[in-house]
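W.,

You were right to be curious about this one. When I first looked at the sequence I had no strong expectations either way, so I just let the prediction run and decided to look at it fresh. Below is the sequence, 449 residues in total, followed by the output.
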Amino acid sequence: MNKFVGYQNFKSAYLPLLMCLIAVNSHAMSDQLYIGETIYLNDPTVTDVVIGNDQIVKAKKVGNKGIALTGVAAGDTTLKVWNGNRYFTSEIHVYPSNVKKTLEDLQTALRDIPKLSIQLVGDNVLLQGKDLTLEEKERVDGYAHLFKNVVNFAKTKENNLQEKQKMIYLDVRIVEISTSSTKEIGIKWNTASVDGPKFGVLGDFKRSDIFTGSNHPLAEQIAPLAKISPFQTYFGLASFIDSKINLLQENGTAKIIARPLLSCKNGGNATFLSGGQIPYQSSGATGTPSIEFKDYGIKLDINPTISNDGIVAKILAEVSTIDQSVQVSGVPGFLTRRTETEFVVGQGQTLVLSGLVGAEKNGGESAVPGLGKIPLLGNLFKSKSNRIKQNELVFFVTPYVYENEFEMKLGGVGRDADGVVKSELGSGLIIPNDYKLKNEQTDETENKK
């Protein structure tokens, strides 16, 4: 309690002196410096001074006259000044440059542009405005280049129109992975940034070090495995997303179910449906019957928008199948797997959606003719089999931005995956580009002869 009273007494006695100092030096009132600036607090009663981080602000006592503060690096720190047994604390922010003067100079020079906003945001001066004329935009750009720590977001009418007309191109790969009930499918992610995957089959025939080299992060996991025969034992889907995609299968295949190439305008909507429709009868408010249709199959709905951080999009992936075991008025039900998310990626980076797992169970019975029907003993001549098949769909979505649809058609899209694998076989199997089938090798040999 005594400490609190002492502090109150200190405030009443010491703050008038601080206000005098503030009147002399306006910097002390705002507790702000910029790198290289030095301010002087004239107070001979100061006995000690401590800076929380002397890498940001240097403090030095000047004899018995006061203290000098110098901004060294951008950031925030705490200043404590003692006067005998009493002290006061102040937070100090150091700007990377004299942004306050920059703000004042820009506001003075560009005050005749009414659609331009000039604000101090953090350690930068932010210039914002839309529908500027070309002459105004040139002036703003010229002044912005004269100063440090200026972020220029000013745009002309033409800029806004071009922004709206930009096209977003979506390269989508839908891959189905089949596995038996005894296999494990794992997808392990790290939390670092996403760069986009590269695809390829991991096998003995692969000559490139990109998959089998000792420096690759997957090498330690792959080394203990048995030898890999093409498309028989293991199939790997390698990724450079700074995360791990570990899809190991035994005696299974991975197939590209669909590869839609979608496009839409900035802020528009792109949809894809691979399946069909089932008609059903419904009635409106008046009771009049009508026929409507329900979609089923693989459905993808993407709504992308271009932002300063990249491409922001909402994506809905859905897989539905007809369930004949459930029917209402002759209309079957549906088994649906759905995932929905919102993401931000850069142009050319890849988003991976997984987890749409389905299972099919099939059973059968075989018996020796005649002997299988013997009461009690017939089971000795019968065999039953149950098979569980699991399917997982993985969606790879890679967006690209084009100024217009004409540029999108002529510019071409550089796909990382195409540099590693090809999937033009009728079976949809993914194989490396440098892997040659037997018939291809035979054709080359005959041509050389």
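Here's what jumped out at me. Residues 2-95 form a domain with the Immunoglobulin-like fold (CATH 2.60.40.1080). And, maybe more interesting for your project: Residues 74 and 96 are 5 Å apart (CA to CA).

Coffee later to discuss?

I.
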